[in-house]
Amino acid sequence: MFWKTILIVFSIFLSILLYRAYVVFTPDKTIFESCLSSTGNHSLKFDQNRLRTFQKLLQFQTISYGVNKQNFDEIKKCRNFIKEHYHDLVTNYSEFVDLYDIAEYSLLYSIQGKNLNLKPFLFSAHMDVVPARDLNRWKYPPFDAHTDKDFIYARGTLDDKGNLFAMMEALKEYLHAYGQPSRTFYVALTHNEEAGHSGAMGIAHHLSQQPFGHNGQFEFVLDEGTTILEEVFPTLNNPIAIIGVAEKGYMSIKYRIDMASGHSSMPSAPTAIGILARAVDKLESKLQPSQFGRGPELSLLHGVTPYLKFPLRLVMSNIWLFGPVIQWVLSQKPGTDALQRTTTAVTFISGGEKDNVLPTSASATVNHRIHTADSCQKILENNRRIINDDRLISHINSCSEPSPISPYGKHIYSYHILEQTIRQTFEKDHHQPIIVVPGLMLGATDSKLYTNLSKNLYRFSPFVYRHDDLDRLHGDNERIRHSDMQRGLNFYFHVILNNQLENIPETELKSEL
């Protein structure tokens, strides 16, 4: 009788697990037609003319070294090139297109819609880039914009001139094909996203004075961000498009200790450097607590689950049971562990004056990327408990709180339009459809400056990343595929086109997309 009861209980338990795996979590059956078959049968080509223009844009050495430490001459040349190349947008469509210079070097294109009752949206990209560092590690000079049959190599291809170029070409193509849109929208091109953000701040202020801007009623903001990943999930062959619905916060803390000097022949123990070293070791050894399930990472996993194979699908569809196991698996790689917790990185350390003199001081700078469930104050308090040494004095160099989590799901107009446009422009194989999920942006973008404009802040770059692409962002041999640029052109074009709808009735979506 006992074993019979155990068998019944086990059968019920297993049935619950299987029910969740194969009934609750099922693949999205809504697969829409590609852009080649969409409204107007319109598809943009990344042809030789566009390639040459993109190469010219990449050749400007618009480097940001730090706040107010930029190659302003090159940034000015790049800004002027954009204004001159797209000058006909302002002259040919002067009745509804305006261009504004913001914060001296940034640009804002305004495209006035016919229906002033529709909420506007904003595209955002930036023209500045990070330094190329060791040029000997680059296959081609980072500002030559060398191209072969598959790639364009240059600093800024991925971050963020690829997005900038695709946005502007899509805008040009849309106006040429359709003229004045129904819905107002803006294209912001900032000059110091990598250091300072005065461009984005100026644009946010300017737009706050426009209709729907003063009370945060923009339909959405779309900035650079998470991408399309391939070959990153066990048992999964589908590409995964991640729309960043939030981004991590940023905090830099300097820890310092001061002590009396002395001679190295009669050392006191421990020295200032020794005390600091112990504190650094504690911070690196004791991770910040996991916030698994308290951010968008849970929705990302839920979105992927229906496409997994057994037994992984069974595990992922029952996170209520296997949550601790999943947390442990995520923690095994830095890239996945960063999704579930605030990260800690010691980035600077200094101390000592002479090899035979005891150091009077030592300091270290610690960088945190803060999970959406944490805050600057919370992490500072966690560090204090971890270090547990009042001799170390902390000073916050900078702090930017995590962004709010933007609304997402099929019931949210702006998110649903982005989701379906991704499917429309990237669908290749109906047997392995692209999976679109919300996610967390690990880095910082201009979008956090636009919280006054909209609660729907999304971060997405329409490019495919594989394993060997991840280290190229801010790294050596940055490059982009010709095929990605073509898809990027069509993505932004169809975001503009699809947002001319006033709402998204399902029947209309199936014919439009």
Automatic annotation (TrEMBL):
Question: What highest taxon heads this organism's lineage?
Answer: Eukaryota
Say if the entry is tagged with keyword Lipid biosynthesis.
no
What does the record give as the organism's lineage? Eukaryota, Metazoa, Spiralia, Gnathifera, Rotifera
Q: What role does this protein play?
A: Secreted enzyme that regulates the endogenous N-fatty acyl amino acid (NAAs) tissue and circulating levels by functioning as a bidirectional NAA synthase/hydrolase. It condenses free fatty acids and free amino acids to generate NAAs and bidirectionally catalyzes the reverse hydrolysis reaction. Some of these NAAs stimulate oxidative metabolism via mitochondrial uncoupling, increasing energy expenditure in a UPC1-independent manner. Thereby, this secreted protein may indirectly regulate whole body energy expenditure.
Q: Catalysed reaction per UniProt?
A: N-(9Z-octadecenoyl)-L-serine + H2O = L-serine + (9Z)-octadecenoate; N-(9Z-octadecenoyl)-L-leucine + H2O = L-leucine + (9Z)-octadecenoate; N-(9Z-octadecenoyl)-L-asparagine + H2O = L-asparagine + (9Z)-octadecenoate; (5Z,8Z,11Z,14Z)-eicosatetraenoate + L-phenylalanine = N-(5Z,8Z,11Z,14Z-eicosatetraenoyl)-L-phenylalanine + H2O
One GO MF term? aminoacylase activity
State whether keyword Metal-binding applies: yes
* Pathway where it operates: Lipid metabolism; fatty acid metabolism
> Which family does the entry's similarity section mention?
Belongs to the peptidase M20A family.
Name the UniProt record assigns to this protein: Peptidase M20 dimerisation domain-containing protein
Any single biological process term in GO? amide biosynthetic process
Q: Which InterPro entries match?
A: Bact_exopeptidase_dim_dom, Pept_M20A, Peptidase_M20, Peptidase_M20_dimer
Organism the protein comes from: Rotaria sordida
Keywords in alphabetical order, please.
Hydrolase, Metal-binding, Protease, Zinc
Residues of the signal peptide: none
Q: Which residues form the Peptidase M20 dimerisation domain?
A: 245-389
Q: One Pfam annotation, family name?
A: Peptidase_M20
